[in-house]
Amino acid sequence: MQPADRRLPLLHEMQRLADEGKHCAACPGHCCTAVANSMQTTPLETQDVLQYLRETGRWTEELKIELQATVQKFRLDQIPGNGKRSYLRRTYDCPFFAGKNHGCTIPREVKPYGCLGFNPTDINESEGKSCGSDQNLLARREEVWAEELSENKSLREKHKLWWEKLPLPLALLEAEQAGF
Ligand code: SF4
Ligand code: SF4
Question: What is the mean pLDDT of the chain?
Answer without folding.
Answer: 91
